[in-house]
């Protein structure tokens, strides 16, 4: 498997670069919301009260009810959206990747400047990311050859 990407000429202040995703907030990033959406309801119910809904921008989800609503929307469409919630001027779509036991193990995301990822484009990008994440899930869930 290979992953291809384009490197930005400049990284927005506060933006995550490759490998930085372990530091993304669950409530204020598409990666975090994708991972939350793939949790079982009992796990999610235990996890949500422990998340500090600290605003990162004026668009960050900082209300528990709104976060639950966004998780439900993410489950419905198969991908999460970060609409300038983590970094002003940046948007992101992400979909969960599930492991062999059907639990989230990672998320695949695409992010870029808001002017290159207008709201009208998020659905098509989200569908592409969801499709790629589903293919990766299939690869991870497939039985491994004996060695």
Descriptive account of the structure:
The chain has 147 residues and is α+β, with helices and mostly antiparallel strands. It has a single domain (24-141), classed as Beta-Lactamase (2-Layer Sandwich). It has 4 helices and 3 strands; from the N terminus they run H-H-H-E-E-E-H. The protein has helices at residues 30-37, 41-47, 64-77, 119-141; strands at residues 80-83, 90-98, 104-113. Strands 1-2-3 form a 3-stranded antiparallel sheet. Helix 1 packs across helix 3 (64-77). It comes from Chelatococcus albus. This is IclR family transcriptional regulator C-terminal domain-containing protein.
The biggest sheet amounts to:
3 strands, antiparallel
The CATH architecture comes to 2-Layer Sandwich
Number of DSSP E strands: 3
The number of distinct helices, counting runs of at least 4 residues, comes to 4
The CATH topology is given as Beta-Lactamase
Unreliable runs: 1-21
Number of domain units: 1
